[in-house]
Each structure stands twice: as structure tokens, then as C-alpha cells.
Design goal:
heterodimer, A: 44% helix, B: 2 strands
Chain lengths: 474, 229
Amino acid sequence: MERDAPIPPDAPARCARLLAMALALSASATGTAYARPSAPSILCETYPDAPQCSGSLGTCATCHTSTWPPAWNPYGAALIGAVGEGTFEHALPTALRSLDDADSDADGVANADELLLGTNPGDADDAWPWCAPTAPSGALPVAEGFDFERALRRVAIVYCGRQPTYDELQTFRAGAPSPEVQYERLHATVELCLGSRAWRVTGLRRLVDARIRPIGAVGADSPVDIVIGDYEWDYRLFRYVMTDDRDVRDLLLADYHVTESADGTLSRVEGLVTRRDTTGQPLEPERRAGMITTSWFFSINTMFSALPRTTAAQAYRAWLGMDIARQEGIDPVAGEPRDVDHRGVTEAQCAACHSTLDPLSYAFASFEGIRGPRTGAYDASRPSRLIPGWSAPDTYLLGEQVTDVRAWAERAVTTEAFARNLALMLFRDALGREPTPSELAELRVVWRALERDGWSANRMVHRIVDTRAFGGAS
Amino acid sequence: MSTHARNVLAVLAPSALLALLCGCGAEESFLPPVLPRSTPVELPPPHEVACETATPPTPETLIWKRADPLAADVALALSLEPDTMCLELGVLPCVEAEHVALGGSDPLGTGLYTPPARPGLTTPNAVDRLVLAACAERVDRDATGPAVVLTETDLAAASLDPDDATTRAAMEADARSLHRRLLARDPSSDELTLLIDLARPADGLTPTAREWATLTCFAIGTRTDNLFF
């Protein structure tokens, strides 16, 4: 480097990163430092209003650039220096608070502000200087400057599958309507579109594709005649629950299935759906838990696994919005993982995730994976048949012990994560992107209203249409 | 730059915008060790966020109109059937053949459960293909049968003279109709003039009435305000 070369503006952050790397290398050499999987939950206890803690658990990336081998971003490195006497778990809250007013990543926003705004206090490229907007002050639940025509166009395209025509826009504008009238007309259109085929068939299918994960080659219409399951049951159930103001908790609590008539009418089917091939639903109603106990769900996720970790992880990811593979929703259970199937998951680099994932999975082991017409059926002896020495360890979901998959689902729908996941699913679908930190606060109001709105997905769509993000208000 | 070249640039600008927006992301994953579950602790009051007066960053305000609604809008606007207005090899609907390029997903075929986040490199081509084929189909039908959309202009003419009052009035009526149908709004006078000028000779070539009608339809149908909302 030349002697007179200017100091780069990101020098402090770079120095901190170098320090973190040095600490990581030192720690790795002595074997005494680890990423702390308990830290995200402690962070959320310290900052319960942080967006990453509202209906979710903190992520390891708040402090880490890598968790194995452990390496820290500038905020994590600063925390290491701030943790005082005593156990890590007891010292961490004080250490977090001691750094509130510091700006560890030198991006101009204090650490606590970043945590409460939803940006990363250890990443200088992640900052969002912003103030919470005031709540709508008028009679309408929309912000000043809400663009009703833009919202109408978006409603029509997203939920009706086409833009409004010239004549429809003229009707919307007729009589120089007041904001109140425009609001009524807008929401009448929302209601109309939510009943359209474009939404009830095409839109809702698109919304749930990544959660059902169909495979055309082995579905009911398999071109090679290898059918492992019929995912159309899953699509119909989702579409049924998400329409006509039904209770969305049935996504995880439904003990029924759904058929579709030629005219598109969806109807409940009670009891078993017994078939000689693999297109039925052999699970008894009392053991059903909506989308996470269909025959297809077990066939595509459990497959031939003795302990179906993928099944539990997909249930957690799809319906609670936390992807363990991305270090989300880490909530370790003491004494876990036990490594019941001798996969080596007690190794340090595996254990942090498996201390959450394995106890999340145990209850799913009693359901058959790919097994012909028995796919998805319940068999209490399955785990002991497939796992030598099976001791029926306790299943845990978000800190609570649950007795079986039905209880897993009943616990899941009571969590804020369930409502948050639904709101995010609908928001991303409507706007084609993630919410920004400034939009997340408004979206939180939407998901927290779900119970008040009778657990209706339609009501949630109405609320999303009212947001600044949808209506283009600044 | 010739008038014709400027007109072509104006027509292709939205497609170029689509191309510029394409990109991709990356993911990371971690594998940490384990520690016992934490216990609740007594905490001081939460920190208050200092409310600054800084202007917040502006989020993406436009939404990409993807495969199905785009095809539905073009078909509805031009009174065509979505499955036949544009066919690849005369068989497969373009909106199916180019579904992913147009922003759709392909869950049952390739296992693409989530549609692309941004327009891809071939998105402008797919959009142009879809809209141009639909426009050509509409012009063909209106030229050879009872006209439905382009009802005023003489589509059999070898050329159109924008300086002839009668011809210009007919062209303006059809351009306005296309604008209303495709964009649900009236054109400004500048937009109308630009569209009419597409009929003028450029670089020694004079478009026929059918070519003018097709190009006008295409220019309107590929405008930014038809591709984003």
C-alpha cells in the first residue's frame, strides 16, 4: 500500500471483520468457542419487538458470518468483547443492551435501532433509516395519499387475473367519488375477485406450489405410470380452506379431505378415502392434521426415512415460515439431539440444527412414507420397526412438548409464526417481493388481526390491500 | 437518427427495461454446534428507536405483470383467445411455451415451484413474441373479416397518409381504441402523434396499412404500463 493512500471509508468495519476472523481462528484452534444456538432466542427475549422475533425466531446471521467454523460479523465480534462474567446465557442480555447505542457495522444506524427496524447490526450494507409512520388518522384504514386506482389495478391483476378495462375504470371514477366511496368500490372489487376462478383455481394453486412440491412424473397423471401419490388432494384442501372466509387454521387442523365437481365446486369428504392404488387417503380422521398429514406430504417428504426429519422441517418451513436449513427457527431442546438413528448428528457441526430438528421430528415417525396404498397411514410400531432401540423420545415444537402430530399442529396454529407466515405468503404473492423493514411494521398489524378477522384468508387479503405497499402511499 | 429508428427505439424501450431488471441471488447455510436451551432472565426496559427525519429508501414500486395476466390482458384487449392468439410451431400456445420466461412457474414439469424473481434475459423476446403475434393475428382478422378492433382504418391500403384529414381521423380512432383496450386509458396527444407518425416513410420504406396497424398495436402492447403495474 502506498504511504499516502487514503483510508477507505469502510476501514472500521473491515478491521472489525478482521478481528472477528482472528477470533474465529483462535477459537477454532483452542476448541473453546462455538456459535451459540441459544443466542437467537435470548436476543428475542431481549428485543421482543424486533421484526425477526415477531412471529419468528432470530437468525444466526445477526452475529455470524459462519457458524461452522464459527466466525462473527462486527456486531458479533463486539458482543464477544461485551459478554461479562457468568454463563453465556445469563451474560448475553446485558451484553446486548450494552451495545444498544453503538454502531458496530459503522453504517450510521445504532445497533438497537437496527434490531428494532429489522436490519442487521453487523452488516454495513443492511441499513434502512426510517421512522415508523403514523397510523391512518381519518375514517378509512388507509394512509394519506393512498392511490385507489393503482390499488384497483393491482387487485384486478393479482386476484382477478386481468387488469380492469377502460369501461370498468370509468365506472370506478364515476361521480367524482370521495375516498370513502372509492374505498367501498375497491373492496367490492376485492371481494368479487376473491370469488373468481382466476384466484380460486389458478392463483391459489400458484400460492401453494412450493409448499406442496408436486412432481408431475409420479403424480396421479404420471406419464410413466409410476404413481406414488395424488397431490391434487393437497391442492383442493388448500383452496377450500383459503376461500369463502373459512378458518385458515384448518390448513393444519382439517380432519377432512376435499373433492371438486365438474363445475369447480369444492366439497368436504369425511372419513377414509380408501383405494387400491396410491391415490387414496388412508389416514384415520382423528390423526389428521390438514396439509401436513396427507398421503402426498408423507410420500414426498418422508419417502423411506425411519426418522422423517425432512417431513418435520418442511412442515416447519411451509406453515410456520422458518427454514432450519437457513438457520431460521433454531430453538434447541436440552438433551438433544439423541441421534436415535445413529446418523452422527451429535457432531458439533450438525448438532445445533438437530437439537431443534430431531425433537421436531419424532412424532412424524409413526406415519408411513412411500408404501403403496398405505402411504401416509399411521402405524405406532413403525419407529421401533425401523429404528433399533427406539425409545419414543418426546416431540417439541417451539419450546412446548407435544404428544403427537395432531398436537403439533394444534400448537402450531396458536403461534404468531403461523399468522405471520400466512401474511407473508399473501404479501409476496401480491407484490412479488419481500416486505421492506418499513412495511413489515404495517404487515405485523395485518397478521395480528387474523384472529379478530375470524381466521379468514379473505379478510387478510382485504387488509393487505389497505397497506401502503399495495396502495402506493408514501 | 432516422424517424423510423427513433420509433423503433420507442417501441423497444420497455423490453430493454425488462432486460436490465434481470438478476439473480445467492443463499448461504451454516452448521453450528449445540448448547443447552436458555433460561429467561430479568431485563431492563426495551430500547426506544430514535426516530430520524431521514427519507426512507424507496421500495420497488412496480410489479411485473407475469405470464397469465399478461396473456389474458392482451387476449381480452384484442378480442382473441389466449390459447390461439400466439402459437409456437402453430401448435403450442406461446404463454405455455414461454411460461417461465414470461415470469410464470412450472411446478409439474421442471419442478420450478417459485416463479423467477426478476425478468430474465429472454423475457423481452418472449413478451415481444407474444404481443407481436397477437397483434398480427388481430390485424389479419380485421383485414380479412368483419373488423372488431381496427374498424376505421382501411387495412387494405398500400400506405396511409397521416396528412390526409380523413385518413388521420381513422388512424387516430383506431390508435385511441387500441390504447383504451390495451392500457385502459386514452393516449396523450404526443403519444397519438408518435403512433400516427409510424405510418410515414422512413429510410425509403413506407409501411402498408396492415404494417402500421400491427406496429401500432405492438408499440402500445409492449409499453411499460402494460408490462408492469
